[in-house]
Structures are given as structure tokens and as C-alpha cells.
Amino acid sequence: MIRTLNLPSRGVPARAGRTTGRVRARVTSAVGTLAVSALALSACTAGTDGGGGSTAAPADDEEVSISIWSGFSDRELGIIDEAVARFEADHPNYTVTSQGSQDDDKLAQAIRGGNAPDVAVSFSTDYVGQNCSSGAWQDLGPFIERDGVDLEQIPAAVRGYTEFEGTRCALPMLADVYGLYYNLDQFAAAGVTEPPRTTSELLETAKKLTQFNEDGSIKVAGFVPLMNFYANTPQVVGPMFGAHWTDDSGRSSISTDPAWAALATWQKELVDWYGYDKLQKFVAGSGQQYSADQDFQTGRIAMALDGEYRTAFIDDAAPDLAYATAPVPVSDDRVDEYGGGYATGTVIGIPQGAENPGAAFELVKYLAFDTGSLVAMSNGLKNVPTTLDSLESPELEVTPQFQTFLDVFASDGLSNNPPSANGGAYLKTVSDFFDKWQAGGVSDLDAALAQVDTDIENAKGIGG
């Protein structure tokens, strides 16, 4: 029978530490993630001494007790526990202890202290590279081969963010997919009938939708172009321009891929149109990202980039809001690629030191691949299910607004930032550049982007 330990979350909102968009939480904590790699764990894979227990699947009549840690709490933890309970019903020889409010730092401490859980759930894909390369999370390859798991059920971009340099130490368990939210009443009032499909259309539409107070301050922003405002991070905005993080040799390509300069130029144009100081004053009065007074929910901004989970927040906090969703706009030279976007998500794996990794993989496999489980969790958490079968399930609860994100997830244009042995440090480097750039603190764009590459390469920030 499932046992749940919902430990205090130290006042952090249920979604504040979750996957990116949740992205902002990941970017600002990128340097902190380096503490995980500092564990200096030797690489321990399934089939070696990394688990301390059998890697074989237990017999049907063998009594098994395992534990699972996750960052979920309160209502969301209850949804995960329902999934675990369904697993126990299908596997009556299992007893699972579920412990919530466990973040990546707590997990790293448990691994270091030799008391890791059997199964771990993380909200941050930025940890995957260092978890795989250090052995903090065990290589799932032998388990996948043992059970003949069909990885083709997972979209290619999602397979990419759950492995690192040939080692798969994680599987996806729901995804966050990003798109454009727009206010229908404000569109109608401005005479705008369609969401922008290109970045130039986004810029012009933002101007049409913006309202100023008599003193010239911003009353309603058509679109806030500041990087690191809500979900406006390099990871989310980069795919709008088709920006690549690395070149063919695996080196950082922030200065050599012209898409990054195009993104920065486009963004600065809209920042300058508003006035950086006016934008700073406007966002100083913004509601918290995961609160009822978040700016899109209150009508303070007319268009915003955000994840599919925002639909649940709107249902709860602003049920009368007339809004729609669309894929993120793309640069004008890529209009034929419209329909894609950024994805990240919750990941699940087996930590080093798990007492019974062979039994643990049964739960990992169930939560990652069982269609009924994924659909139920998606319906409850309003995240995108991560297998092709679950996306097509008739039991999936879909509104027109949520359908956008399912379509983006199933498209050929789905993208993610690459995993790194240094976690999200390279993301912070890029983010810091944009903070300086949008404030007018960069005089030579090309030189500044070249310095970003140098800083990332010196820190071995991408590709190990």
C-alpha cells in the first residue's frame, strides 16, 4: 500500500520550482546546480555496484518495497500518488512509499549520504547532463534493453533532453510545451483578428495592443519583450528564430549562429520602442508568475509566452478570461516552419545507491510509458503526456487552448536546449548577456556574443 510523506516545501508555491516556465526558476538557479556535479560521484551504471541491489526484475510473487521522491506537494502530489496507487494495483507485490517536496538539492544530499530513494523525479532537465555524466542517476540502458522498451514512443526532442553523450539516465514523465497566449477581448478592441505568426507581426501587434497612461507610463503591454520576464528566457525565445546552441562540432554557437544576433536585434527594437525604464517600472508592478494576479490573467499584458500549465492557472484564477493560444511566432525567413516551439519536462530515473534498482525500474517504466497513467496525470496536472500513444488517447481532456500544445509537441519543430555536464550554467551566461543587452549596456553586439561563447567554452558549459 502506498505511503505518502508530504514534507514542508518551505513556502515555495507548488509550481515555482517546476519545469521551466518554471524556466525562470531554472535559469536563476543555474549556478546552484553545479553543486550536484561537485559530488564527484564515480560513474555507476545499472549492472555494476551503482545500485547496491539486484538489477533483475522481481518475480511476480516477490514482496517488494521501494520509495519514490518528487518535488510535488499538496494537490499535485495527490495526483502522483494516485498514479502510484494504480501501479500498486497492477503490481500487488509492491509497496511504494511516496515522499513529496523533495527538490534536486535534497536528492543530491541523499545520494551523497548513501540514503537515496529507489526512484527520483526531477522538474529540471538541466540536471540530466550532470546526473548522467557523474553517475548520480544510473544508466537505464540495460533496463531498457532487458524489457524491450520502445523509445520511439517518445518524440526525438524529448529523447534528447533525457540522455547525455550516449547515456540515458532518465525518462520523461510529462512535458511542458511553450506557446503564445493572447487576450481575445484586447485583440478585438484593437481590430486584430489573428495571432501573429512571425516575429515582425508580433512586434507590430504588440504596439497596436499597448495602452499608455496619460503620464506616458505603460498601462497595458501588448507584449513584454524583456528577457527573463516570466517565461521569456533564451530557451523559450530562441526557437522562435531557430537558434542553435551548438555547432556541428558541439561548440557553443551563440556568436556563429546568426539567429542569436537576429533575436537580440528584434528584442531590442521592441524594448527601445517601449523604453527600457518604462518597462522596468511596469514589470516592477507585475504579479507573481504562479499567483492569481499574474499579468496575463489580470489583463495587464495582452500577449505572453507561457507553457501549457497556464491553462490550469487561468481555469482556477481567471475563469472568465477570454483567451486563445497559438504556436510561438517565428522569424520572417522561417514562416514555413511555424508550428513548433520549446519543450522541457519532468524526468524520472533511478539514483545511485538505490537499494533495489531492478524493482525500481518497474515503477519508472510504468510512470513513463503506461498510457492510462500518463493521461490521468496529464488531466490532473495539465501537462502534456510524453508518449505518442498517450497523445492520441480518447481519455485525454483537451480544450482548444490546450490542443495547441499537443500539436506543438507532436510537430517536427519541437526543440530543447542541450544537456550539459555543468547543468544550466551556460543558460545563465546567455541570460546574463541579455540582461545587459536589453538595458543598453552592450555597444558591440558581435563582440559580446563572441564573449558569451568564450565564457561558455572556458566553463566547458555545453557538451561536457
From TrEMBL:
<dbReference type="GO" id="GO:0030313">
    <property type="term" value="C:cell envelope"/>
</dbReference>
<protein>
    <recommendedName>
        <fullName>Probable sugar-binding periplasmic protein</fullName>
    </recommendedName>
</protein>
<dbReference type="InterPro" id="IPR006059">
    <property type="entry name" value="SBP"/>
</dbReference>
<keyword id="KW-0813">Transport</keyword>
<comment type="similarity">
    <text>Belongs to the bacterial solute-binding protein 1 family.</text>
</comment>
<keyword id="KW-0732">Signal</keyword>
<dbReference type="InterPro" id="IPR050490">
    <property type="entry name" value="Bact_solute-bd_prot1"/>
</dbReference>
<feature type="region of interest" description="Disordered">
    <location>
        <begin position="1"/>
        <end position="20"/>
    </location>
</feature>
<comment type="function">
    <text>Part of a binding-protein-dependent transport system for a sugar.</text>
</comment>
<dbReference type="Pfam" id="PF01547">
    <property type="entry name" value="SBP_bac_1"/>
</dbReference>
